[in-house]
Amino acid sequence: MAKDLNRDFEQGMQTLEDIQALGEYSLTPLIDQAAFHFSEIHRKAEFSFENLNSYSKVQSFLEKTIDNLITTYALREGTTHQVLIQKKYEKMSLDSWNRLLEVLPTSLNILNIFKFVGTQNIQISKEGIQVRGLIKTDETITKFREVVYRSSRKLLEQKSILTYSIEELEDQRLCWLNINVDMAHDENLSYNVDFSETLGMKLGFSNIFKKYVINKEEASKLPRHLIIEISPDLNISKYYRIPDHYTTDSNSKEMLHFSFLFRPVSIIIPKNGLLEKRPFKVNCEDTGSGLEQQEVKNQIGYNYRYIDFFSLINQS
């Protein structure tokens, strides 16, 4: 709904600009007044989406719903560890609450496969769900691969991703497990790569890309995994180790790494990106099902292309 609001607002403002360009100078005061009213309607509508604190009973109901889901998880049969919850609900918009309600049950389903030792910490905010706890190093979750795969696909459909990291301890029987469910995708922002000089366009990705950029040294330590490279002419190549030409030319490229359970993925883009406001004008189109070579080649005549990263990964 918020995305539709922004798109309709920008198209309305564009229409006013077109009228101004075609009309007489005497129309300027009326057009300026119409633009002001458009902006006020847009501002007030955005405020109602982003400030759920104004609706205390709605927010209270949503908080209790989340608490019930967490309580059911913490008290499930076979649980032997303590669960500490930190809730940061400040500035949670209606869209953030909706995504959290979609994502939390799937995330808890994945957490169920781990046998945490001692205290498990869970933090919930509009950015996502962060989990930290000790697990035994001799525990294997390979048998849950299909469960993780299905759940991860469901998260991708909800514009969220689950990544993890391991921290080793002196006691080799235990390690820290950190799980992050990233819900920070914002339809109003995009991570843009500028191809205007060569292809006359910008290529846009999810705004979360900025958080997953790694350097050449970090890339060299990665184990064998799927690597997707987008070339300057938008051709796609896939590798299972870091390509030699990246290590020799990493200053002009950018690599992003997503440490998914069982299926880590890296993406190499030909130049540095920039986080910007995502345009919603009519000459901008979404590639929809991810990034396919023919699809992109047929569309480079437009000024801006947005790549559905979540669908791209889901199809890999």
Description:
The chain has 316 residues and is an alpha/beta fold. It has three domains: 2-50; 56-182, 2-Layer Sandwich (Heat Shock Protein 90), CATH 3.30.565; 189-314, no CATH class. 36% of the residues lie in helices and 27% in strands. The protein contains nine helices and 15 strands. The protein has helices at 2-22, 28-50, 56-74, 94-111, 145-157, 216-220, 244-248, 293-297, 309-314, and strands spanning 82-88, 116-125, 128-136, 161-168, 174-182, 189-194, 202-205, 213-214, 226-230, 236-239, 254-258, 265-269, 274-277, 284-286, 304-306. It has a five-stranded mixed sheet. A five-stranded mixed sheet has the order 13-6-7-15-14, with no helix packed on it. Helix 1 (2-22) packs antiparallel against helix 2 and helix 3 packs parallel to helix 4 (94-111). The longest helix has 23 residues, at 28-50.
Number of domains: 3
Overall 3D geometry? flat
Q: Do you know the CATH architecture of the largest domain?
A: 2-Layer Sandwich
What is the straight-line distance between the termini? 29 Å
Largest sheet: 5 strands, mixed
Radius of gyration: 23 Å
Mean pLDDT: 80
**Helix proportion:** 25-40%
What are the secondary-structure elements, in order, as H or E?
Answer: HHHEHEEHEEEEEHEEHEEEEHEH
| Helix vs. strand class | alpha/beta
Task: Assign the CATH topology of the largest domain.
Answer: Heat Shock Protein 90
CATH class of the largest domain: Alpha Beta
Strand line-up across the major sheet? 1-2-3-5-4
By DSSP (H or I, 4+ residues per run), the number of helices equals: 9
